[in-house]
Amino acid sequence: MSVSAIVSQCNSSNNESSPTSENSIGSQKTPPSLSRYESQKRRDWNTFGQYLKNHKPPLVLSRCSGAHILEFLRYLDQFGKTKVHNISCPFFGHPHPPAPCPCPLKQAWGSLDALVGR
C-alpha cells in the first residue's frame, strides 16, 4: 500500500461514523462488540490521533502528509521488542546471542506490515 493510499484511507476513516446498535432498554445505544481486527484497527487509529496531537506543532488530519505517516512509523519503532544487531556487533548474525549487547530494539517487520494493512 502506498503512502498516499494510507493518507487517503486516514482521511476517509476520519469521516466515518461508528455504528451503534439499540439495546433492550430502548433509546440508549451501545456500540456493537468489535472483532479482534476492528479493535486493533481502532487502537491503531487512536495511537495515530494521539501522535498527531502530541506532534510539535500539533497536526490536524487534513494537514497530514505521507511524510507524517513515515514519521509516525519511525516513532512506533522505538516501542519495538525485536533486537536488531548493528553490523559492528559481535553477535551480528547470531539468532541467540550468548550475552546482552547495546543494539537497539525495533518493531518487527510483520508488526509494521500488519499496521499498514489495517
TrEMBL record:
One of its GO terms (molecular function) is DNA binding. GO terms for cellular component: nucleus. Belongs to the plant homeotic and developmental regulators ALOG protein family. Residues 1-40 are annotated as: Disordered. Pfam families: ALOG_dom (PF04852). Residues 36-118 form the ALOG domain. InterPro entries: ALOG, ALOG_dom. Residues 11-24 have a biased composition (Low complexity). PANTHER family: PROTEIN G1-LIKE2, PROTEIN LIGHT-DEPENDENT SHORT HYPOCOTYLS 4. The keyword Nucleotide-binding does not apply. Keywords: Developmental protein, DNA-binding, Nucleus, Transcription, Transcription regulation. The lineage of its organism: Eukaryota, Viridiplantae, Streptophyta, Embryophyta, Tracheophyta. The keyword DNA repair does not apply. This is Protein G1-like6. It is found in: Nucleus. It comes from the Eukaryota. Residues 1-10, 25-37 have a biased composition (Polar residues). GO terms for biological process: mRNA transcription; response to light stimulus. It comes from Sesamum alatum.
